[in-house]
Structure formats: structure tokens, C-alpha cells
Amino acid sequence: MDDKGISVLIPLLTDKPLRESDSDWLVNRQEEISYLNNITAHLPFGILGVAGETGIGKTTVLNFVKPSHVYVQTVNISLRETMESILYDLLYSLASKLEHDNDVGEVARECKDWITEEVATLKGFSLGFSMLGNTEAKFEKSRAPRFNFFAARERLGLLIEETVNAKRKFLLIVDELDKEKKEDVLRVIDALKTQLLIENLVVVFSLPFAIYREYVSDRMRWNEAGNLENVFKDIVFLEPLKALDIKEMLVKRLDRYLDFVEHDVLEVAADFSDGNPRDALWILYKSVYDNIHEDKLRKVHLLNTINKVVKEYISTGVSLTENQKKAVKLLGDYFGPKEGILEILQKNGFKRTTAYSVFEQLVEKRFLIVRDGNYKISGKFKFVDF
């Protein structure tokens, strides 16, 4: 074993999106990637989405979307305070990606220069106003510079149109919008529909789960006034991974350093993750730091870390009654329908009405989660000694 002990595991457990060069580490996302490659290659135009909970691997999947004979650019949105700032960031990021392109570089540089000057004017005004102070600032509101939303939208449309004309088929991937509220994302997309719905342009957005849920309701006609199907051609939902997938991911990452980890550690980390790769990596990462001088990461180390972390986080806002704690212990290994949970609770002294109430409370607090239509105790709490 390495003289550094388990500290050698830290780089391998760092959470970051995979790229094509990391394809050996990819686990159970081939179906979604293949579908996205096919639809973006053959769809004449339209807006698509990729949705899923945070940390599930949306950026990784998007990094592998490279359809044949299609020009692809990916932009990350970091300025998400308002609809205007999202538009400005989108225009600037796309222009930056295209400014050295032989076909559209000139237009891209013009757009980048314009947006840079526009933002500088706004920030300069804001700074000057703050330095003057409210009592000394005597001016009419109409003189204050504002986001020129329509001009920015027009320039974005021009840049996209020039790119489509030059490349024939253009796939624009917009990542990081899933960090925003559903309403804000939909407002941005709705405001840009004219610029985005043109022949030979396909746009893929990363989306918050709430939009996927509403999209499904619209498709199934459960929403009387829903219209998301008019916005999105399709939304791909990334399901949580299976426990076996999480273990496979960890084995691939740890590779020749597997001897530094007790076998049961991977089992516990997979359970803790609830199918989210980021959560598995995070809890192992924390446990390595907790036991940095050990020569091997053992199950007892990981269980101690989980207990410490979960109890600390619970103390900041989520409390459990004695009945709820008892239910969590009773249901630790359960996986099945609601009726089975109620039966177990009633057999262990819960009155029927109490069993129903405890069930609803545990679902609301996400101690009970749904997987494949069945309920189970979240792995975050399965190993905690309440």
C-alpha cells in the first residue's frame, strides 16, 4: 500500500462532470446519450431538455452529445439573477465560443464587444450611483441606463442565424439553467422562442426537475391549461442510478486503489447515495478526510461519518418525533408499497391513524422516498443511530 494511506483516494473521489476522454468511467447512461444523439441529429429544429435532480449527471450526459455532421457548441450560464442577465450571459458566452471561428468570428466579436460595453455602462452607472449615495443622487429615473433586452435578443438571433447559415445544422447546448426556479427558466425560454425556433437549429437546455414534472402532466393531459408541449419537443429525464450502478462507478474510479477500501464501504456508499453519484462521492470524500491517517477506509469509518454528518444537518432544521424515529428503524430494509409500510407499523404497536400520519410525515421530510413505484427509507438515514 501507498505510504500516503487513504489520502491517495481524494483525487479519485472529486466530483466533476465526465468528458469524452473519461468514457471508461461512464455508467448506465448510454441509452439517454444515444437517444439525444439521434434526436439532435435528425430533428429539423426545436427545443429539448435534460432534467433530473442536482448531481445526477446532467452535465456529464450533455458532454457526450456529439451527433454526426452537426456543429455543436455548449455554453454555461453563470449569471442567473434575472431574465436579462441570463440573456446577456448567453449572448456573451456564445459569442466567446464563436469569436475565432472562420465563418462567424466577425459577427461574434461584434456581439461580444457590444455586450461588454453594455454591461460596463450598466455597472459603471451602478457604481457611480452607490458612491454618490441616495441623498446626493438627483436624477430622473428615465436617465438611468437599463438592460437593453430587445437589442440583446436581436443580436443573439443574428449570431444564431449566421451560425446556422454557415454550419447548416447547429446544436446549441445551454447548461446550468437547472439551478434556477422553474418560472424563471420558462420566462427566459418563452422570451427567446422566436430566436430559437428556426430551421436547422436544435437547442438543448438542462432543466430543473419541476419543469419535467409539469411537462409530463401536459403530455398526459392532466393539466387543463398546460402548454409546455408547445415549447419542448421532448425532455429526457435522468433517473437515479441503481445501487449496482453506483458501486460500478466507484469501482471504476478507485481502480487500482480498491485495496484501500473495505468491500462493505462501497455497499454503504451506494445505499447512502439514493442513486445520486455526487452523494456517493461526497460521503466517501468526507469519510476519507475524517480518517485521513488510516491505511484503509473501513465500514465503521464510513458509518461514523454518516452518523456525524446526518445528525449535524438534522439538528439545523429537521426534527423527528419518537414515533418517526421508531418507524425509520423498523423500515430500514423495507422496499415496497405503502400498504406494506402501514402493515409493519401497525404490527409494531402503531394505531392505524398514527401509522398513516407517520407515513405522510416521513414522505414529506423525505425520510421515505419513492423508487420504481415503491417506498424505501432514504439511504441518508438508514444507517443513523437515532
Automatic annotation (TrEMBL):
InterPro entries: KAP_P-loop, P-loop_NTPase. Gene3D superfamilies: P-loop containing nucleotide triphosphate hydrolases. Residues 35-205 form the KAP NTPase domain. Transmembrane segments: none annotated. This is ATPase. It comes from Fervidobacterium pennivorans (strain DSM 9078 / Ven5).
